[in-house]
């Protein structure tokens, strides 16, 4: 299996590293526009192979899409990360152009690839890549839900002093303040989380999860990469190993949850064909209301992109 990661910055290089050392692909091509950066990072990852014992070949290129040809999966991480004081939506004007030109190149050289978008603002960049690619919705999806859920699970594991491995959770909606964690679907070793934690403590964890990206931006002056890179690699693994994993991913909704045309995070089955099924949960009125608020916000940012494209 051949996987290309576009953008050899913090997230892209981390993703390529995880793909390599976990032998998720036979070949990983890392591509960036900055001369030499992808080559250097791919070489560094390859030089780690005798230490960490893996066979994955890693290749770095500067904007040479011919070298990415016939990739099975392509991960797009190219674009600016936010700085303290910025929202993800502030990145739209720079990142939309980058994501769209990258997508055109990918589709030209790897027409059968499944595309995983990571660049922010995530839901709208998934929209941008999808309309540019003209591929079915099942093949152009965004990574955010695995990351947001991982943050929620990690915070819960810390609060309950249990293994993060035993916490299962699902989260819906856009990748931002309007994301919708679902305590009703959160379990700890099969036990509903509400039986193990006070409501106030759980609400504090939900709020911290919603601000999870911003917390790290404030600490580091740029956004996170270890968990995001690993989350994107986990999506690649589900596809190349046809694992049929159930993950929250960003996809165009076509009537599910009463929403049509918005790109939002929902649980799906992820396998060799990309999204093989969108899972529709039976939400209660409050959960549905929160999801529709998220839908409203993402729609507004999608409209910003539409206006940019039409020049108005
Ligand atoms: N979806 C998520 O959950 C999530 C999580 C973390 C970061 N992100 C986003 O991912 C993106 C990358 O973050 P980062 O921390 O890796 O940033 P970074 O600045 O470290 O890396 C971005 C890389 O993209 C490259 N690039 C820019 N334009 C390009 C082009 N046209 N072609 C190829 N490469 C190009 C840059 O040269 C740079 O190396 C940001 O938009 C960030 O907001 C999303
Ligand atoms: O917060 C950001 O800007 C990056 C990413 O979306 C994250 O949640 O870590």
UniProtKB/TrEMBL annotation:
<keyword id="KW-0560">Oxidoreductase</keyword>
<dbReference type="InterPro" id="IPR036291">
    <property type="entry name" value="NAD(P)-bd_dom_sf"/>
</dbReference>
<dbReference type="InterPro" id="IPR022383">
    <property type="entry name" value="Lactate/malate_DH_C"/>
</dbReference>
<comment type="similarity">
    <text>Belongs to the LDH/MDH superfamily. MDH type 3 family.</text>
</comment>
<dbReference type="GO" id="GO:0006089">
    <property type="term" value="P:lactate metabolic process"/>
</dbReference>
<feature type="binding site">
    <location>
        <position position="32"/>
    </location>
    <ligand>
        <name>NAD(+)</name>
    </ligand>
</feature>
<feature type="binding site">
    <location>
        <position position="88"/>
    </location>
    <ligand>
        <name>substrate</name>
    </ligand>
</feature>
<feature type="active site" description="Proton acceptor">
    <location>
        <position position="175"/>
    </location>
</feature>
<comment type="function">
    <text>Catalyzes the reversible oxidation of malate to oxaloacetate.</text>
</comment>
<dbReference type="Pfam" id="PF00056">
    <property type="entry name" value="Ldh_1_N"/>
</dbReference>
<feature type="binding site">
    <location>
        <position position="120"/>
    </location>
    <ligand>
        <name>substrate</name>
    </ligand>
</feature>
<dbReference type="GO" id="GO:0006099">
    <property type="term" value="P:tricarboxylic acid cycle"/>
</dbReference>
<dbReference type="InterPro" id="IPR015955">
    <property type="entry name" value="Lactate_DH/Glyco_Ohase_4_C"/>
</dbReference>
<protein>
    <recommendedName>
        <fullName>Malate dehydrogenase</fullName>
        <ecNumber>1.1.1.37</ecNumber>
    </recommendedName>
</protein>
<dbReference type="GO" id="GO:0030060">
    <property type="term" value="F:L-malate dehydrogenase (NAD+) activity"/>
</dbReference>
<feature type="domain" description="Lactate/malate dehydrogenase C-terminal">
    <location>
        <begin position="147"/>
        <end position="302"/>
    </location>
</feature>
<dbReference type="InterPro" id="IPR001236">
    <property type="entry name" value="Lactate/malate_DH_N"/>
</dbReference>
<dbReference type="InterPro" id="IPR001557">
    <property type="entry name" value="L-lactate/malate_DH"/>
</dbReference>
<dbReference type="InterPro" id="IPR011275">
    <property type="entry name" value="Malate_DH_type3"/>
</dbReference>
<feature type="binding site">
    <location>
        <position position="95"/>
    </location>
    <ligand>
        <name>NAD(+)</name>
    </ligand>
</feature>
<feature type="binding site">
    <location>
        <position position="82"/>
    </location>
    <ligand>
        <name>substrate</name>
    </ligand>
</feature>
<keyword id="KW-0816">Tricarboxylic acid cycle</keyword>
<feature type="binding site">
    <location>
        <position position="151"/>
    </location>
    <ligand>
        <name>substrate</name>
    </ligand>
</feature>
<keyword id="KW-0520">NAD</keyword>
<feature type="binding site">
    <location>
        <begin position="7"/>
        <end position="12"/>
    </location>
    <ligand>
        <name>NAD(+)</name>
    </ligand>
</feature>
<dbReference type="GO" id="GO:0004459">
    <property type="term" value="F:L-lactate dehydrogenase (NAD+) activity"/>
</dbReference>
<feature type="binding site">
    <location>
        <begin position="118"/>
        <end position="120"/>
    </location>
    <ligand>
        <name>NAD(+)</name>
    </ligand>
</feature>
<feature type="domain" description="Lactate/malate dehydrogenase N-terminal">
    <location>
        <begin position="1"/>
        <end position="142"/>
    </location>
</feature>
<dbReference type="Pfam" id="PF02866">
    <property type="entry name" value="Ldh_1_C"/>
</dbReference>
